[in-house]
Specification:
The protein is α/β, with parallel strands linked by helices. It folds into 2 domains: 119 residues, Ribonuclease H-like superfamily/Ribonuclease H (Nucleotidyltransferase, domain 5); 54 residues, no CATH class. The protein is 38% helix and 18% strand. The strands form 3 sheets. A 3-stranded antiparallel sheet has the order 5-7-6, with helices on one face. It has a two-stranded parallel sheet with strand order 1-4. β6 and β7 form a beta hairpin. α1 packs parallel to α3. The longest helix is centred in the N-terminal third of the chain and has 18 residues. The chain starts with a strand and ends with a strand. About 8% of the residues have low confidence.
């Protein structure tokens, strides 16, 4: 997977964007045990908790990455030297070459364009079967099993259906859809 960032970003922001993009993809497919490899010693050390955050502008990224890590049963985070990370370099080059209208790609690769920082697409709610009475419970149930509450009338059903279009359920978590 390759992601092209369409906003001003430092190298550290780009590293977080890549890490978080990968974690979100793993959550979406239901992975439980993951190994996270990064070539940024700063990002890896911050995520592992070995270093203390000094750049306040990275706080949202760090908090969101740590929140995502709680979705997995087992996580290993390792720093990889840049010279050993040819795949990441190739994907980064691919993303930098990919422009609107330039569809000369011959290999099937997932390409994502992002106009907003990834932490702005926050998780709305974890799927928790004991979590009853929340405003989003009917939406989660509808997305998961396509059922309405027994007490729902036609108006309630129409409202739930209309609201459900704005959300998606991935890896047991409810996400708000964005125009992108």
């Amino acid at each position: 997977m390759s992601k092209r960032i369409c906003f001003l970003a430092t190298n550290n922001v780009a590293e977080y964007e890549a890490c978080i993009c990968g974690l979100e993809a793993l959550i979406a497919i239901g992975a439980k045990e993951v190994e996270v490899f990064g070539d940024s010693m700063l990002v890896v050390s911050l995520v592992k908790g070995d270093w203390e955050l000094k750049e306040e502008k990275l706080r949202s990224y760090l908090e969101y990455a740590k929140k995502l890590l709680f979705s997995f049963e087992e996580v290993t985070v390792k720093q990889m030297h840049r010279t050993q990370n040819q795949m990441a370099d190739s994907l980064a080059t691919l993303a930098s070459l990919w422009e609107k209208g330039n569809q000369k790609l011959t290999q099937p690769v997932i390409l994502i364009k992002s106009r907003i920082p990834c932490y702005e697409g926050l998780i709305i709610a974890y799927l928790d079967l004991e979590d009853k009475g929340k405003w989003y419970e009917d939406i989660k149930r509808y997305l998961k099993v396509r059922e309405y509450p027994q007490s729902a009338n036609n108006r309630d059903k129409a409202t739930i259906g209309r609201l459900a279009i704005q959300f998606t359920l991935a890896g047991g978590q409810l996400y708000k859809r964005f125009f992108e």
